[in-house]
Amino acid sequence: MLEFMPLILFAVICVVLMFGFPVALSLAGTALAFAGFGMGLEALGINAHFDPSFLSAFPNRLYGIMTNQTLLAVPLFVLMGVLLEKSKVAETLLDAMALLFGSLRGGLGISVTLVGMMLAASTGIVGATVVTMGLLSLPTMLKRGYSMPLATGTICATGTLGQIIPPSIALVLLGDVLSSAYQQAQLSMGIFSPKTVSVGDLFMGALVPGLILVALYIAYVAFIAWLKPETAPPANREELMEELGHQGSLFTLLLKGLVPPIVLIIAVLGSILGGFATPTEASAVGAFGALVLALAYRQLDFETLKEALRSTTHVTTMVFLILIGAALFSLVFRAFGGEELIHEVFNNMPGGVVGATLVVMVVIFLLGFILDFIEITFVVVPIVGPILLAMGLDPIWLGIMIAINLQTSFLTPPFGFALFYLRGVAPESVPTSAIYRGVIPFIGLQLGMLIALAFFPELATWLPAQF
């Protein structure tokens, strides 16, 4: 029984998190309780398979987290996203796209998807995108006769594009974890000058799958509009223009709505893909660009800036606290021999590396029903990542597979955060069941993308290989 203590520790962590306790404290507290139990058994002369020397590495882990240059991108990208949300760039962009495509069947749904893609490439924050879209586009879509499941499902799914389209905070965190896992895997294979995988590599790897997902969303909306015209009717452009309260030509509105975010996207992603800046440096460029846009739109005052800084500090503190708790959990897990146990299980699994990868992907998908993507990234990936990479998997491909898998966690009930975000801003006339029904086809599309990536790894690895 004691030899399975690592698996018991992991199961207890999941149960504690399901009760809603703070993630960072749950990880650290449960790990410390198990460490104390293991040391107590050892003191009594009972072999608990626990090596307390692992805990002596915690101060170094803590110092490494706080001085990690890659993680510096997290507060800067969050600040960029919050400032863009405050500057009302999304509102102007959504109005422009609605007027451009609204006269087509399913045009408003296509507009929402395209705007979501632009916001994902500008902010990388799922919550901000879903809330903004829910407030701005859902009333218009419902007023124009869109079915509730189609409207709500499109908004929720589009919001999750911020998980996979760079610059994504999820990819920043995943890239940092996978970088350590890749180096650990190479050292275990006797490679003492290990190669590295960077956040920039993951950004490039995610670009093609992210754009394919956008195309799949648009194709689905267009197909439903063709199959059931009453669920996504066209809108009258003149009525839309009057309803949105815009004067002047459509071209002027498009210019005002499209140019600023495109310039910002080119500045951030272009500098990374062109090799002119690291993701951390590009995040500083993005934050400064968002500040300039907020000033240009005359939406920046002291109160707005204070609120943006408060939100940034809140998210950053949460991420770093979870990372510290996860580091302690990881050390206790390894002290109980968890790494060797998982390695043995994977090596004895039918199907070899294919079977092991399939099991990991299924487990991550199922954990997405009850855990947040940050928890899965910091708890599960450090455990399975080194073992899978040591079995020969490409780190970029594995990273994008995990990222798309984690993307579904925002849509899967009961704890899908995109569902909660939209429920919070949707009219009371929209039942929660309609939101749940609406996201099911999009979950299917994301899983389809995952399967396509499994059969065609080049979708993730081709672009990074060109740079």
Detailed description of the structure:
The protein is mainly alpha-helical and 467 residues long. The chain contains 23 helices and no strands. α4 (73-86) packs parallel to α14, α10 (169-188) crosses α20 (395-408) and α20 runs antiparallel to α22.
Give the number of DSSP strands.
Answer: 0
Structural class: mainly alpha
Largest sheet: none
Average residue-wise pLDDT: 83
Individual helix count: 23
Overall 3D shape: globular
Query: What is the H-and-E element order?
Result: HHHHHHHHHHHHHHHHHHHHHHH
Distance between the termini: 50 Å
Mind telling me the C-alpha Rg?
23 Å
Low-pLDDT residue spans: none
> Which range best describes the helical content: under 10%, 10-25%, 25-40%, 40-55%, 55-70% or over 70%?
over 70%
How large a portion of the residues is in β-strands, by DSSP E? under 5%
What is shown here, in short?
This protein is an all-alpha fold and 467 residues long. Helices cover 74% and strands 0% of the residues. Helix 7 runs parallel beside helix 21 and helix 10 (169-188) packs across helix 19 (381-390).
Tag the structure with descriptive keywords:
mainly alpha, 467 residues
Task: Itemize the secondary structure elements and their pairings.
Blueprint: H1 5-18, H2 23-43, H3 58-66, H4 73-86, H5 89-101, H6 107-122, H7 126-136, H8 138-143, H9 148-159, H10 169-188, H11 199-227, H12 237-244, H13 250-273, H14 279-296, H15 302-335, H16 338-347, H17 352-367, H18 373-379, H19 381-390, H20 395-408, H21 417-425, H22 432-455, H23 458-465
